[in-house]
Design goal:
By secondary structure, this protein is mainly α. The chain has a single domain (about 15-115), classed as Winged helix-like DNA-binding domain superfamily/Winged helix DNA-binding domain (Arc Repressor Mutant, subunit A, Orthogonal Bundle), CATH 1.10.10. The protein is built from 6 helices and 3 strands, in the order αααβααββα. It has a 3-stranded antiparallel beta sheet with strand order 1-3-2. A hairpin with a 2-residue loop joins β2 (about 85-90) and β3 (about 95-100). The two termini are about 20 Å apart.
Length: about 120
């Protein structure tokens, strides 16, 4: 498809539509935060960890085993995911178990999978 096929043939601004979109658009700070969230989802290792945690609560050793990764690599990614509030942890004795932070994270993963499989 050529560039000319992607643009209007003449310049005509639909003021009512533009005004409504401006009113309904989230503010720049919120959109920046959304973009940062998608950067975190943009890493295949983190997606693999989130996918594993969508199936069960797991400790670092379990995640390492399932994903064939080193403990330091998994721990590094879990730290990023925790800071982004995508995963949470709980201590049980000497073990720390990780799970998805809430249902929104699972929804995002499932929607992305569904969209990709279309």
């Amino acid at each position: 498809m050529e560039e000319k096929d992607l643009c209007c043939e003449q310049k005509h601004i639909h003021n009512e539509i533009c005004e409504q979109v401006c009113v309904d658009m989230p503010n720049e700070d919120l959109l920046f935060d959304v973009a940062e969230l998608f950067k975190i989802f943009g890493d295949s290792t983190r997606i693999r960890i989130l996918s594993a945690l969508s199936k069960a609560e797991m400790c670092v050793c379990d995640i390492c085993s399932v994903l064939s990764m080193t403990k330091s690599a998994v721990s590094h990614q879990l730290r990023i995911l925790r800071q982004a509030k995508l995963v949470k942890n709980r201590r049980q004795g000497k073990e720390i178990f990780y799970s998805l932070d809430d249902g929104h994270v699972l929804s995002i993963i499932n929607l992305a999978l569904e969209h990709t499989m279309e």
